[in-house]
Amino acid sequence: MIFLSHSPGGKSMNKLLKFNQLWQLIIALFREIIREPGVLFWGILFPILMSAGLGLAFTKKADVTRKIAVISSSEKPGSLSESQIVNDFLTGCEKNPEAKSGDWLWKYTIADKKLGNSIFLFYSLPWDEAMMLLKRGTINVLLSGKNDSVEYHFDPMNSDAELTYLKISSKIGRGNIEEIKTNSEIRPLTVTGTRYIDFLVPGLITMGVMMSCMWGISYGIIEKRSKKLLRRLVATPMKKSHFLIALITVRIIMNLIESAVLLIFALFAFKMTVQGDLTALILLYLAGNIAFAGLAVLISSHTSNTEVGNGLINFVVMPMMVLSGIFFSYQNFPDWSLGVIRNLPLTMLTDGVRSIFNEGAGYPQVALPIVILTSIGVIFFAVGLKIFKWH
């Protein structure tokens, strides 16, 4: 039986054929994806593993720990404050019997079964050292005062510091719980280097370097390979190293321009200053670019599947973006994890840049991160170049 296209039966047959074509196309593309093991792992299994890891990290321990500096009355380790009210409060706190240099000395816990306990760790520090730790995000509130007065020093724009103040201020006061009726004891820290914006901008600059290198270099190479564009370059006399170095050079120049624009905006809009050595900042910045560019080359050296490449890049980028203290201090993570976090490339770069911006650091403080980041970049680039394939 023959159906004419303009007849009712012919129109139904055409619709059926078109639907069948679409269905077969969907099936073919779906099979193309699921036949690639890397796609299944990075697209399905990796997000599950990531959510499981982060979920355990953030839900296993409901307690929140806050670190507070008590401005000591003398340089002697463990000395109390000049404020009698603060000293009376600390006397009732749990002491750390095994305290060493740099450890917390007193501990106070506000128990809450529903929201989790709030644990406050108190450190006895001179003013200069306390300010340095505040700039690094290790602590966010400073306690000081004389005789019967208590003063709270923190950045009013830092919500975490304000929450710490609200909780602890209701517990300090002649041994009784006293509601705060006046804010005269608050001493806002608004000087350059202690504000949240001073903490945030260096992190945004370093995160921009990582994201630009990882997506700009890695994904660019993988996409060119998947579209068979790299294969055409095999016929040319161009060296692999020249091709990759050119990519890295362009990316570093773009990063410099992007970071310079952000920095200039922050300098004028927020009155930020670079308190440390500018040449050390430039060298550290270049070392960070080299580290992430080398890592980007290594990741993109072999795969030609954009789904797999997407997963590999996320595997590198996501943990560092969460853990390296870009938006908030990584000091809030458990103590056992801090050793690992501090040695991540993004953490190393961010801490160094932040110390030059806010603490006046120079070559003595950032020489080691410069050497390590540069070495990481060179090693990763050499390995990536060795296993790099055009197609």
What would you note in describing this structure?
- The protein contains 13 helices and 7 strands.
- It has 391 residues and is α/β, with parallel strands linked by helices.
- The protein has a 7-stranded mixed sheet.
- Helix 6 runs antiparallel to helix 8, helix 8 crosses helix 9 (278-299) and helix 12 packs antiparallel against helix 13.
- The longest helix has 31 residues, at 196-226.
- It is elongated.
- Residues 174-181 have low confidence and may be disordered.
Brief synopsis:
The chain is an alpha/beta fold and 391 residues long. Helices cover 59% and strands 9% of the residues. The protein has helices at residues 8-34, 37-59, 84-91, 127-136, 159-169, 196-226, 229-233, 240-269, 278-299, 306-323, 335-342, 345-358, 363-387, and strands at residues 64-71, 94-95, 106-110, 118-125, 141-144, 151-154, 186-188.
Report Rg: 28 Å
Distance between the termini: 50 Å
The averaged pLDDT comes out at 81
String of helices and strands: HHEHEEEHEEHEHHHHHHHH
Low-confidence stretches: 174-181
Care to count the β-strands? Answer: 7
User: What amount of the residues lies in strands?
Assistant: 5-15%
Largest β-sheet summary = 7 strands, mixed
Secondary-structure-based class equals alpha/beta
Helix content: 55-70%
Taken from the alpha-carbon principal axes, the silhouette is elongated
Number of helices: 13
Describe the strand arrangement of the main beta sheet, using strand numbers.
2-3-4-1-5-6-7
What would the keywords be for this entry?
single chain; 391 residues; alpha/beta; seven-stranded mixed sheet; 13 helices; 7 strands
